[in-house]
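Hello forum,

I keep getting stuck at the same step: I have a sequence, I want structure tokens, and every attempt I make locally crashes halfway through. Rather than fight my setup again tonight, could one of you with a working pipeline run this one for me? It's a single chain of 299 residues.
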Amino acid sequence: MFRLACIIATKDRPFELSRLLNSIKEQDLPIHEIIIVDAGEASSFSLNAKAAAECSFKIKHLKASRACLPAQRNQGLSAVAADAPWICFLDDDIVLHKGAFGAMAAFWKDAPEDIAGAVFNIMNEKRPTAGVFLKKFFYTGSWERGIVLPSGYNTLMCPSEETRQVQWLFGGATVWRRKVFEEFLFDDWFEKTGLCEDLDFSWRVGKKFRLFVVAGAKVDHLTGTIARRRNVWFGISQIKNRYYFVSKNNLSKALCWWAGLGQLLENIMLGILSFNFHYFLRAWGNFVGFLETLLCSHN
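Reply #2:
Ran it on my machine without issues. Output:
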């Protein structure tokens, strides 16, 4: 029996959470338990509690100790029932296709012990475009899917037409063997945006175990736009978080700096081509991120 515990970290997004729970209801495989770790304000928390109460499956609705994605995931892990051998993480903006859990269960049924984690197949992810040539030049991308470059930049693995091994996993739609968390936890250094926290966690696990994308376990990732005031912050994180990941995991700092320059130029180009001022704010954030990283690395 596939006894799956699902952890959902959320904050002030009751509509998205309710939509996710409804897609879980439509699955052909029952969930052992769901743990919602909620960092929302009082009104949002109440709406989420109401949505949880209306569900037909077992739900633990916890108040987060603090609004921090890695910390919320670690908090959820501490609340998982002892008899759940598989643990699933779902972001609140994920929507499961029918049969997604069934396909994931079929994958794990005969999976060897050296496979530690598997990601759902995100069907609305963008496929590589001609811009990959520029990304390859700056070591921010590649035609090869699901790999981690020496610069610390990772390539997307979805959508995938076949179940195959990858080097990292997207954290918001993933199933892990429980034993993984006896050795590995999420690093709450990535407190502000969570950017790269899943890359850091899965890359460390992937050094010891194998990781896969499961083609038949289909989902959509309906991410919203980043608020204008947060674009500078996001741009800073694109540089600082990547550099932290590279430094921590002994990848190439020189290539990380080069890739960061490519990231800044890419945001400027996207701003020009799309007439979207948000990308210029991210580029400014990239510049600030360079300065902050330089100051921190010399202290």
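Strands lie at 4-10, 33-38, 59-63, 86-90, 94-96, 115-122, 164-166, 173-177, 210-221. If your local run keeps crashing, start a new thread with the error log.
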